[in-house]
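Methods — Computational structure assignment.
A single polypeptide chain was analysed. Its primary sequence is given first, followed by the predicted tertiary structure written as structure tokens.
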Amino acid sequence: LADLAPQKNSTFAGLMLVGLLAVGGLEGLYAWMPRLAGMTTDGRVAAFDLEGEGSLCVWFSTGTLELASLTALLIYVVRRQTPGAGRSRIWLFAAAVWLVMSIDECASLHEAFKELLSHSTGSRLWGDGTIWWVGAYGLVLSALGLGLLKAIWPCRSAIIALFATAAFYATAVAAEMALLLACKDASEVMIEEGCEMIGNLCLLLSMGLSARHAVSACDGASEAGAGGTDAAGQAASSADDAGRRAERAARRPRRRSAVGV
């Protein structure tokens, strides 16, 4: 399992570049979609619609978050096998949260949660009630983020990627709540969905860098354990040799006294 974690910086850079090109391509297809309106009956292409259910954008975000969940699960397994690693359960919790977010991308669980709370409380609080799922996500991700910061503190690159994830997610939420642009038009949709997809990429990058660090720590602990075993064996062998030499030294005077008699 440890071999699944990339080790080279060039590999991470290449994967990130491919992901960014994919995001740019999806944004370009959405911008090109109005030109295809005359070829459709409803004026839109569902596969290119960034806000549509079952679109390429949804597929991309779902797959990215699933990979992040699997990577967090890999870290959990590796850290459980690392002596003195500690704080392994936080990765199991992270894997569960990323998996729920992945399911939410394709099933719109946050919309059902918003309507449920709006109906049960009789109030949408602000606007269309988006604040309900934003607040819930904010609480869960804040608590998880603090736990992950403690777990990945030695890996500064993973911390930077995690902060970048938070920044892109915050920008996407601000666009969703019409805090960046007054009206919800194509530009607002491109900003929101683009920042969300890039945030998912940064999250996967953070999990990948953390996995590399976890595997390196596990290898280091294994080498230290093997070195300690070899040192103990060498010490025991040296002690045996010293004991034999002492025995031989003790027998020599007796032989000399016997010869003299």
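Note: The mean pLDDT is 80.
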